[in-house]
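Let us practice reading a record.
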Amino acid sequence: MSYKVIARKYRPQTFAEIVGQQHVTRTLANAIESGRVAHAYIFSGVRGVGKTTAARVLAKCLNCAKGPTSEPDNTCDSCREISAGTSLDVLEIDAASNRGIDQIRELREMVRYAPAAARYKVVILDEAHQLTDEASNALLKTLEEPPDRVVFILATTRAEDLVETIKSRAQLFQFRLLTFREISDQIEKIAKAENLEIDSGAVAVLARAAEGSLRDGLSLLEQAIAYAGDTIRDAQVRELLGVVAESTLDELVGAIETQSAERALTLVHRLIADGQNLRHFCRESIRHMRNLLVARVCGADSELIAAPEQERPRLADQAARFSEEDLTRFFNILLSTEDDLRRKPDQRLHLELGLLKMVNAQRLAPLEEAISELRGEHRPTPSTHSASAASPSGVRQAQSVRSSAAAAAAARMAPVPESNVSPAPFQPTPASHTASPLPVPASPPQRVAELDRVKSALRNSRLLSSFLEHATRCETESGEFRIFFSTENRTLTEMLPREAMERLRTVVHQVFGQPLRVCVRLEAARGAATRGSELRARFEEDPIVRAMLEKFGGQITRVKRPGEE
């Protein structure tokens, strides 16, 4: 007798043996027992989850000598013929290669005749979504009013591609992906039946690599047997499948925890030297980071964790080192990195960049914490490390917080103003920082003197000196040094380079002995100026806006009502 692979050898022969699809098998068993068997079914789901197997078991239930019954005996002639695939009354047709209208016409002629020996004629149409439009239309009438004692079962991995008229004529069953535990339990059961000695770590690697498909998991087990023999070790399976060792993932976690860029880059170098697939490493890191996040949120005993029991204490220990916000950041960074590795060249560069982002991610304060601090609320920091925004990623986080706070403040005002807050260099504020008293508005003579002092300090800068010559006035108020220009000089104010503004801020700081935000404004018309100043004053007095500007060093360049151009 020829060798039969494990996936075929241990193929379920009853509804009770089908793993993980109880919602389907229970419904079908109840329909058989109550005599309410439909004339057409659609079994939909990814590969290797039991669609064709369930179709064959249903055919045996209908044609068993003791039936119709929900528990076929698998000993009668009908059951044995169906299991062997030799029954004349159970037709398995591959719609991927028999997808034309001529083949469907032949099928229609075939089902017109009564079953040869069985009770029902069962037609299993595999990959039914591959049928052409003409073939699907030719099948419609037969599906709606099939001959007596004929049952159609359409198996497909893409039920959404079936025409709606076919789906409306059949009962649809959605087969789900199997869980990590279901696949690992089944692998252990079959390994025991085959007298195999297999490490629990090897079982975990196979179950994760199956990605919800039991048939894929059993095929990988077959491959592992061919590679390692009757004794299968964790390291052998990882080498076979190109999966990185858990110690490598532990090294990644250690580099992130210690914020060591050197360790992260050295890890990438070692992966390349060992011939590891960088994309596979990234996917394993995503899986590991997900386990850590689930362990942090749900506990290490959660069934949602795709890991064996002996690995869970290690996961719990690593998860406790980070906050939920940190782990969520790491997860998102890895997902973005995996996408870059898949679509862009130079995988090493993108992987190194992704790991460096994770190393520096803990320096960012959570968004909720930053907003609470702006509101003056004291909130404990969930992260195990102090937040800092000195890195480029911190600047992006600061900008995000600044935008969110501006939106929150605007929402509290009526009418709701829209503000354009121009980005400014972010300066970290110490935890013990208290807002300094705002400068008292200067009188008109003082303002003229202040502008002259700034001009004098900028006499070596021809660009800025010429720029300030067109200013009409200035004022110091609410922590800002405001320079006004007439509307005719709008183009001049818009053309000032960013580097020049930075130089101007530095000089203003030196002149006044304290950091002030430099604001360039245009003189408004009298009526509009009155209304605009009132609206701006309301916006500037909002405590959240003031705290935001004080913390992040931004500036308000314009305040307008909704709908204004």
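A brief commentary: The CA atoms of residues 244 and 549 lie 47 Å apart.
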